[in-house]
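Might you be able to check the backbone structure tokens below? Thank you kindly.
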Amino acid sequence: MSTQSENASAVSSVKERWEPRIERFKRGWSRYTQHKMGVLGMLILVMYILWALFPSVFAPHSLEWRAFIGNDQYAYLTPQMRQQLPHPPAFGDPFFAPLGTNKSGEGVLTLLVYSAKNALYIGFAAGILSSLVGVPLGLISGFYGDTWIDETIQRIVDVMYGMPFLPFLIVLVAIRGITTTNIILGIAITSWLNNCILIRGETLSLKERAYVESARVAGASDTRIVFRHILPNVLPLAFVFLAQDAAVAILAQASLAYLGLADFTANSWGMMIENVKSHNHIYDAPWWLIPPGLAITSIAAAFYFIGFSVEDVANPQE
């Protein structure tokens, strides 16, 4: 009997703890769904996530497929067939390519779908890394404002701000090697600055609130005050910048790919555009050029839409 009462008490305790949080989430989600931009951004992002997780479901062919000859090697194409590549959209015989093919006979839609995984990986990885650096440093800098700790962090930020973003990335990738991991690290190194500065400003304001003073009087340590009382209140702002950093990372990777400074072994929308340029088909193969450009634009816009909507939900103006 006592065991049953203890279990019931534990369940009741957990329920009491989580019910207010669930209710807050429901209210926040209800407010978020009122933003058409946020809903549109979420739908776009979900579509690309599904592409990344299940590319074979959405792509009409595998990556090994080539026009005219199914799964055989491109080397067996006759000169007459090669002259027909890149090929505009065609349905049925001699092949099925809803968005046409590139110079190698690969389906543009297939490449578009399989490249979503690389874009999301770079976006989320760079965004999370920049947040993991910028948010803690901003919290520490703001909490210890006007001390040597704050001064040191802000001087580092000033020095980093003096480095131009894209040239720094180009030099770093050129020195360390053209790999996706190095591109992510380079983007993260240069994108945490805005996080740090704005989180610092928010922390300077929050640390003067009454509940922080009460925690300090109650004997709470600095670490507990920062991560238990201040961090939850800056998380919505941190998420906004995570979304923005993810969008910037995707655009930066596309820029590097266009300049020939991306991993050529990985499928990416930026590499698709670079291949159009390198084969001199910018003006006569729009079916090859426009889809990856629209994909880059739409996924970057989706992150911005989500970030702006989350900010409005967390800090309503009306």
Q: What stands out?
A: Residues 137 and 196 are 6 Å apart (CA to CA). The chain is about 70% helix and 0% strand. The two ends are 52 Å apart (CA to CA). The chain has two domains: 58-113, 115-314.
